[in-house]
Design goal:
about 30% helix, Udp-n-acetylmuramoylalanyl-d-glutamate--2,6- Diaminopimelate Ligase, Chain: A, domain 1, UDP-N-acetylmuramoyl-L-alanine:D-glutamate ligase, about 25% strand, Protein-Tyrosine Phosphatase, Chain A, alpha/beta, globular, 6-stranded mixed beta sheet
């Protein structure tokens, strides 16, 4: 492929060499450079690609794209750009022949709800006969192919490569989670979304390796709506006005406010045979009744976002209802089939904010006991441990403190920190360091009417100890207890 053709529409200065040359591919990791590649120097959380420019040249890179001066042999073409991340996105789109033009692209951003909403959208579209790919926190889905994810929003080259594979596989749409980091790092550059959805915003991902402050976090979320044609927004969110700043898209809203284009009302929580769910009515641009076997008001919001999108694809009410009835998202308020006498669920809640939201929601179902099992990751903020301990002790009737991903710390030391937080409130608690034994304990000691939450791991199927990942899946641990049958049924 000729370099000059890839550079159409990109601002650059050729400071060395010639752009009339053939290239064999694009790389942004110097360890993956092959002969004839373009190497794009990007800065990551750990290292700066510019310091590897010389290594890339030695491995055969024909072209190097950089934001600052670099020193490489004269046979290498050097292009200087103002933003190498944006350039990587545009080069990648061109290299894969602009696959987004062959797909209807749907991006969902927000602090919570992205994962569940993407699965809901995909299910509804697939059930309507529209082949739809998915990119998100848990996995990428292309037809029957499921690829585990490393990032919520992959690097722009991977996004474009995935779009191309989806289009070639016959997909007509793609729905993807768009993180604030993904927007900040231009991972979804090089194309315009057809639809963008804003679910909600709460303070999160603020720190040295993420966003410098809340303003930066809000700003990055808002960038999606300068890069989509039609925006769909949660009108009830207090940050909506900030999210809309600078938007260039059409605006459609959903929520509980009377001014919403699509309004929810008549919400009812229900419980039947170990399953928790919610029903509600939609009015406005859509008029229908909705029921979901996923608990909580947040499930109303997630399903509303998905329904609002699918309205634009003329998905029937019947298909929406059918699709929602079978939605199960791995590790997201995932109710397991254990007993008709009590409820067991797995959820990814791994910080105080998400745990408080989940437990507060579950208390609305008035369980006889709310039981919360969780641990905290090692080599992470100790404050999170104190906070999660206090939240669980305050909201749950019984807390079981166990291990999560201890990494390079001792599990007992992490548990001691959590107990410091637990003791700030008045809930009963127990510690069981081994997570498998902890899960066995809560199920074998369950009482009729209990709601049991296994929090923190969610979709993860490993436990990280001393730099190594060992297979461990909360669902499998529950299944092992169920096989033994030593609990009330």
């Amino acid at each position: 492929m000729n370099l000059a053709n890839l550079l159409c529409g990109i601002s650059y200065e050729c400071v060395q060499g010639d752009i009339d040359r053939e290239i064999s591919g694009i790389a942004y990791d110097s360890r993956k450079v092959y002969l004839g590649n373009i190497f794009v120097c990007i800065s990551g959380a750990v290292s700066d690609g510019h310091i590897f420019a010389e290594d890339a040249a030695k491995k055969g890179a024909a072209v190097i794209v950089a934001q600052r001066d670099i020193n490489v042999p004269y046979n290498v073409t050097v292009l200087k750009v103002s933003d190498s991340r944006a350039t990587l996105a545009m080069l990648s789109a061109a290299y894969f022949n602009y696959p987004a033009k062959e797909l209807v692209t749907i991006g969902i951003t927000g602090t919570k709800g992205k994962t569940t909403a993407t699965y809901m959208v995909r299910q509804m579209l697939e059930d309507s006969g529209i082949k739809t790919g998915l990119i998100g926190t848990i996995e990428t889905i292309i037809g029957d192919k499921h690829i585990p994810s490393d990032h919520t929003t992959p690097e722009s080259y991977i996004v474009q490569q995935t779009f191309r594979e989806m289009a070639d596989a016959g997909c007509k749409c793609v729905v993807m989670e768009v993180s604030s980091q993904g927007l900040m790092l231009k991972r979804v550059g090089g194309f315009t979304f057809d639809y963008g959805i804003f679910t909600n915003l709460e303070p999160d991902h603020i720190g040295p390796a993420e966003h410098k402050d809340l303003d930066d976090y809000i700003h990055c979320k808002s960038l999606l709506f300068r890069q989509c044609r039609h925006g769909i927004f949660n009108i009830d969110d207090s940050h909506l006005e900030r999210i809309l700043e600078g938007h260039t898209c059409d605006v459609e809203t959903y929520g509980f406010l009377d001014t919403a284009d699509i309004k929810a009302s008549d919400v009812h929580f229900f419980e039947r045979e170990g399953t928790l769910g919610v029903s509600y009515h939609l009015s406005g641009l859509i008029n229908m009744n909705v029921e979901i076997d996923i608990p909580g008001k947040f499930s109303v919001y997630n399903s509303m976002a998905a329904i609002c999108i699918c309205r634009h694809f003329n998905v029937s009410d019947e298909t929406i209802v059918k699709s929602l009835s079978k939605i199960r998202v791995k590790g997201r308020v995932e109710i397991l089939d254990v007993s008709s006498k009590f409820t067991v669920m797995v959820d990814y809640a791994h910080n105080a904010m998400s745990l408080e939201s989940l437990l507060t929601t579950l208390k609305e179902y008035n369980p006889k006991r709310l039981v919360c099992l969780f641990g905290c990751g090692g080599n992470r903020s100790r404050e999170r441990r104190f906070e999660m301990g206090e939240v669980s002790s305050r909201l749950a009737d019984f807390t079981v403190v166990t291990s999560d991903n201890p990494r390079y710390e001792e599990p007992e030391a992490i548990i001691d920190d959590i107990i410091t937080g637990v003791k700030k409130a008045c809930g009963n608690y127990i510690t069981v360091t081994d997570r498998a034994e902890a899960i066995r304990y809560v199920i074998e000691n369950a009482k009729e009417g209990d709601v049991i939450v296994l929090a923190g791991k969610g979709h993860e199927d490993y436990q990280e100890i001393k730099g190594k990942k060992y297979h461990m899946d909360d669902r499998e641990l529950v299944a092992a207890v169920v096989r033994d049958g030593n609990f009330i049924k």
